[in-house]
Design brief:
about 260 residues; alpha/beta
Length: about 260
């Protein structure tokens, strides 16, 4: 269990952004665990255009064009910009968070980016694995929402179907319920892949950055995070047994390390 802060006064904002074809409702219990660790802080889940609650919106073909939508979502959520803002993100969401920090200097005090990559730091064969491409093909032939969710989790975690149902059933059911009504359109998934494939990180980190990665990521090579660490010389925390979606399989581990490194 992650220890809770003793200070219950509102003191920070947290912004969460998920990755390819995943929306705010795919975080499962992670936002709640973050709130428990930081009582009184505000947690905001925003969607990449084309995902989640915005699944009817065409995804821009450039990551740089996501930011306008993020800021509009925050306005609708009554975001308090006077508080220091931190971020946690995954994969394509981390590319978007880096871009947001670049476009809005001093907006983020610190960002935690997980299992992501950059076109100018890693080659394409590291950035999109064979397993990820196989999943894309499989999804075209799987029509059951439940089976699609299982296939996704079997690729983005190190869990199998039996483990998902035995140990993660509540989280799985919440994600499945969200996917039934807020799944991304295949055209938007393709547009997101195009945006991700061309996105380059700035030469230097745009704010304070902590990298997190899974040592057994089957979706994006774990080497990509090491490439970022080498270029940016930023802290890099690795879970040796985690896959791509660390916050689904090991939410307590993620929150624990965020708690240890947040001031």
């Amino acid at each position: 269990m992650v220890p809770a802060s003793q200070n219950s006064i509102v003191k920070r904002n947290w912004i969460l952004i998920r990755g390819l074809a995943r929306g705010a409702g795919h975080w499962a219990n992670f936002p709640e665990k973050l709130e428990q660790a930081f009582p009184g802080d505000k947690v905001y889940c925003v969607d990449i255009p084309g995902n989640g609650y915005l699944n009817s919106v065409p995804t821009p073909l450039k990551v740089s064009e996501f930011i306008v939508s993020f800021e509009e979502q925050l306005k609708q959520l009554n975001f308090d910009s006077s508080l220091p803002t931190y971020g946690y993100s995954l994969s394509l969401g981390s590319m978007a968070m880096v871009e947001w920090a670049k476009q809005r200097p001093n907006f983020f005090k610190k960002i935690y980016i997980s299992n992501t990559s950059a076109a100018n730091f890693s080659n394409v064969f590291k950035r999109l694995s064979v397993d990820a491409m196989k999943l894309g093909v499989r999804m075209r032939f799987i029509h059951s929402p439940e089976e699609r969710e299982i296939a996704s989790l079997e690729t983005t975690t190190t869990l199998n179907k039996d483990q998902i149902f035995k140990d993660y059933r509540k989280s799985f059911d919440s994600m499945l319920s969200f996917s039934r009504t807020h799944s991304a359109h295949p055209k938007n998934v393709l547009r997101q892949l195009i945006a991700a494939s061309t996105y380059a990180f700035p030469k230097n980190p745009p704010t304070e950055v902590v990298l997190m990665s899974g040592g057994k990521d089957k979706f994006v090579s774990a080497q990509c995070s090491k490439d970022i660490e080498k270029k940016w010389h930023c802290p890099h925390i690795i879970h040796p047994e985690a896959g791509h979606d660390i916050s689904f399989q090991f939410p307590d581990w993620v929150v624990e390390h965020i708690t240890e490194t947040t001031t």
